[in-house]
Every structure is written in structure tokens, then in C-alpha cells.
């Protein structure tokens, strides 16, 4: 028991930042669920069921949630693993996926550990704000970072997947197209961008 406590206490700064990000996600899920103020997640979750029932995603459903759905149709498939779980567990999974997405993307950046610490600290408040409002922004940010990382590694087929998928969910990842300038395989970048565009476009039809 003593050795186990020591291992926890002697986590380095980078590891403690991971603990912080995950703890914020878990705390927010419990708080929001218990206070029944998880409207954004209700919109996301309902999109899966509306798509499955072939209802419009962009209609008004005041009996289910307030506000409207503003994401691309493909998002309804992205939320499926969370939507299929009981409400609380799906909500918790959603928050944790967003936390892990941004953590893994930062982890894979070709930075020193100190630089990663600084980046996570710099993003901490905005991350907490996004998680508190159950937004998809951490995962969207992760998609942009991962697309750049994969271009740097010569994996254009996967980099463009994140760019196209992210753009069809929410427009911001379209900035990833500028990574074409850094690609050593520009023909492959263009080809796979076209392939993924056709694949996801057909999936939405």
C-alpha cells in the first residue's frame, strides 16, 4: 500500500496534467448529469436516434431538448457508441473521449515534455470551458493536430481522413488542407482527400 501511494504522489508534472484533464471530464459529467443541465449532450445523443429513425437532424424537438442541432450528418454516427449506452454512462464516455482525444494528440506532437506541459497548461481553461458545456471542440482540435502529425510522418491517407471527417462534422478542420504545403507526398494527399470525401459523402446520403 505504501509503495502504491508513493507511485501516485511522485507522478511527474506531465502525468498530473493528464490526471487533471481526465478529472475535469469526470467531475463535469457527474455534476451536469445530476443537475440535469446536459442539454448539448442530449442534442448530440438524439442525433443518432433521429438518424436511425430517418428523421431530419435539423428539426425542432422541444420535447427532447432546447436549441438546435448544428453539426454535419456524419456526426450522428460518431456519437453512436455513446448514444447506445445508458444516458449517464454515455455522457461520461463522451466527456472522457474528448479529454483523451486532446491528450493523445498533444502526446504525439514532436515536442519536449516541457513544451507539452506548457501547451496543456495554456489550453487548460479553454478545455475546461468546452468540457463544461459538453462541446466537441477538444476532439475537433485533436483532429487538426493529428492530421498535421500524420502529414509530418508521411501518412497522408490517415491525415486526410481526419481533415475530411472533421470538416464534415464542423467546418474548422478544413484548415488542415493547408498541411498540403508540408506534405512530401502531395499527389497522395490530393488522392486520399478525394477518396475520403467520396466515402463520407456517400455515407451521408
From TrEMBL:
Membrane topology: Multi-pass membrane protein
Family: Belongs to the glycosyltransferase 87 family.
Lineage, top ranks: Bacteria, Pseudomonadati, Bacteroidota, Sphingobacteriia, Sphingobacteriales
Pfam families assigned: GT87
Record's subcellular location: Cell membrane
Organism of provenance: Mucilaginibacter humi
Keyword set includes Ubl conjugation: no
Main location: membrane
Domain of life from the UniProt record: Bacteria
Record carries keyword Cell membrane: yes
The protein's name in its UniProt record: DUF2029 domain-containing protein
Regions crossing the membrane: 15-33, 91-111, 131-151, 157-182
Record keywords: Cell membrane, Membrane, Transferase, Transmembrane, Transmembrane helix
Listed InterPro entries: GT87
Amino acid at each position: 500500500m505504501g509503495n502504491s501511494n508513493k507511485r501516485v504522489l511522485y507522478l511527474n508534472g506531465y502525468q498530473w496534467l493528464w490526471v487533471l484533464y481526465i478529472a475535469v471530464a469526470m467531475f463535469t459529467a457527474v455534476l451536469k448529469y445530476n443537475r440535469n443541465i446536459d442539454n448539448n449532450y442530449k442534442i448530440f445523443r438524439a442525433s443518432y436516434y433521429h438518424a436511425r429513425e430517418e428523421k431530419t437532424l435539423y428539426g425542432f424537438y422541444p420535447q427532447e431538448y432546447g436549441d438546435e442541432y448544428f453539426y454535419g450528418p456524419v456526426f450522428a454516427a460518431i456519437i453512436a457508441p455513446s448514444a447506445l449506452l445508458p444516458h449517464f454512462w454515455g455522457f461520461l464516455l463522451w466527456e472522457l473521449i474528448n479529454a483523451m482525444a486532446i491528450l493523445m494528440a498533444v502526446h504525439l506532437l514532436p515536442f519536449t515534455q516541457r513544451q507539452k506541459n506548457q501547451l496543456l497548461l495554456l489550453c487548460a481553461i479553454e478545455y475546461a470551458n468546452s468540457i463544461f458545456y459538453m462541446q466537441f471542440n477538444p476532439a475537433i482540435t485533436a483532429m487538426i493536430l493529428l492530421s498535421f502529425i500524420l502529414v509530418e510522418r508521411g501518412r497522408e491517407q490517415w491525415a486526410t481522413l481526419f481533415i475530411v471527417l472533421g470538416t464534415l462534422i464542423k467546418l474548422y478542420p478544413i484548415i488542415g488542407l493547408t498541411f498540403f504545403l508540408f506534405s512530401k507526398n502531395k499527389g497522395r494527399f490530393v488522392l486520399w482527400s478525394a477518396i475520403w470525401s467520396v466515402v463520407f459523402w456517400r455515407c451521408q446520403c
